Please model this.
Amino acid sequence: MPADRETRAWALAMAGVATLAAATLSGCVVGPNYRGPPLVAPKAVSAPAFHRAEDASAGPPPAKWWLALGDAELDTLIDDAFVASPDVEVAVARLRQSRAVVSKDRANLLPTTGAAAATLQTHGLTNVIGGGLSGGAAAAAQSQAASTSGNDGNFDIYSLALDASWQLDLFGGRRRALEGDKARSQAVLANLEDAEVSLAAEVAQDYVTLRGLQQRLALAQQNIDLESRMLTLTQVRRQGGDATDLDVERMVNQLRSTQAETAPLRGQVADQLDRLAILTGKAPGDLDAELSATGPVPAPPKVVVVGDPASLLRRRPDVRAAERTIQQKNALIGQRTADFFPKVTLLGEVGYNATDISSLFTHNAFNYVGAPMLQWSPFDFGRIRAGIREARGEEAEALGDYRKTVLGALADAETALATYGRQRENLSALVEVESSADRAARLTGLKVEGGTATSLDQIAAERDRVSAENNVAYGTAQLTLDYIRLEKSLGLGWAEPTQR
Model:
């Protein structure tokens, strides 16, 4: 029966496709297989704790380290930055692009198909060949129909066809391309997470710097008030003959110097406000009303959890990005090696052609054609070998980059731990000085009440107390900044697992 012919043709075509698909999927994949990153600094990585982790715990550190600072305003700013920061927006766009490339690579492993339907009016053999039909076989078949039509050579041709082409990945070149682009996409994801780590740290640093500057401004104003009172008392004493003009000039110079210090501080406050606005996706000035009021400098927790070196390397996004780049370059070697071998593309078409639309779907109108196409460049004058050498050079560069990144990550953490520990000691000393200055101010007040000290002595003691308080505020801000630097060095600031 006519239907049997079409059924057998389709069955044979599908069997051929299935066989070739199995052959393609089980075909060899040339080039070196990726075996993981090289071992770097094995002694340091296998250590149970960091070398300089004197004041830290070795448990698993929290991802959202800024919550330990206990500042709701800072928490909101970091959340806003993750949503609206231009840096994160760019990183997310790059991730989407890389994933689109992976999807395209997967599609490249499958056949390319197309469908066409057409009605052509032909005028003899010459017009049939020039009528836009593709393929020599189709032109020959229609030429025969024109020559046997028995009329003046003018007739309509109705055509419905499905065509396909498929480049068989016999030697794994396209699979290596997919492998490499997957690794690249994973590296781009790690870069996005690294951008989040840097963003959280930058927002926190700018916020702490802002609060520290505001504290210094407030304390500077207290000093101005105290020095104004001292100047007034010195002028009174000058009138009474107990002070000289030189004493008055010294107090005037001291007051003017303190007043002059406030101008650059105000400029730095404005700069920090604008920086925070940009980081959170706002225009300069948009955070002025929200953050202009003086707030306390957030202090780090008493116990900082840092983990161990091995978990640091697993967690840091820049290390993971460097490792994924090694696999990408390793896959590129295989992709270039596959160029040594022939490329086989299958071309085929299945469809119906008829001069009468009523007979379009009859067995006589059914036709199919399939043919392989071979592409091979055995004599390329060394181009393929040069491409492989280039890919190996890129892999060697990626290996060096990875080693550098690992060593840098370990050094960052150790240096940050040492700096944080020393600043803790420094702040403890500053707090003791502040306590001593506070006691001295109280004792001077008692002496004034007892008549053994003057008001000028009391104001001078108050000024020393304010100066000590200013040093503590600065030291606290510096300790918090060192804490932020430590958390950034640990690769914290992105949530795991990441949902994108």
User: Anything to note?
Assistant: The longest helix spans residues 173-240. Strands lie at 56-57, 112-123, 154-168, 304-305, 343-354, 366-375.
